[in-house]
Amino acid sequence: ITVCDAKHLEMRLDDEKPEGVENEAVEQLAFADRVLLNKVDLVPEEAELEKIEARIRSINSNATIIRCTNSKVDWKMLLGVEAFVLDRVLGFEPEFLTDLDAEHQHDETVSSCSVKFEGELLVMGLEVWITNLLRTKGADLFRYKGVLAVKGESQKYIFQGVGMLFSGGLSDFSWGADEPRECRFVFIGRNLDKQELIDGVMACKAPDTLRFSVGDPILARVSGGFKPGVVIQQWEDGYPYIIRMEDGSGDTVYGPMDTDQFVKARA
After folding, report:
1. 40-49 confidence digits (pLDDT tens)
2. Where does the record place the CobW C-terminal domain (predicted)?
3. Considering the domain 2-77 in this protein, what is its CATH number?
């Protein structure tokens, strides 16, 4: 929850800082789930208040803005925000969906980026991409979250994070029989490259067809290198292949991605 002064907020947002010093007002708005726009009585013009609110939304389009005077707010609007509780995210709260497809005029350094498409993701591809994204861009990512359809899974996959702290996994909520299986992401951060984020997400989409069929003999990457096995099932637990090893162990392993890095044809 962030409290800001309606009368002076834009001046604070426009403060020029020395190189390497961040604008604290911008960062606090970017992290907020609730923004108390205080002292609105000092800004009598509705058009001016709407302009200020638009400036806030340009930095964080997902935060709920609450107007107030002398910080007087119904406490029920502040307690139990639960912004990072899976049930709330899965409920597609209005703030999460607001302007999901809209283009915004953002602050020069801090912006939000939303992605939505029908289709399913490969969970291993997503986790690899997120790991690499945090390694290279983690310092510039303030908040991010998503509700995803994962190939081979009936439950909705939730991911969310703050900075370098990331969590993701299947929820207890399943996709409805008539519900479109789709993926929705929201990122808030500094100097976001929207096209780079979109390309990264789209690269995680599950393939329409797999290279190997049930019964095909393959080589699977396991401890100790590639060993012979047979595909016994496709798309289980979010993984393209279930493989029974033929190295005498009798083990069953996952083929986490349909690439030669994990599963390849026998010579």
Report:
1. 898 889 999 9
2. 110-205
3. 3.40.50.300
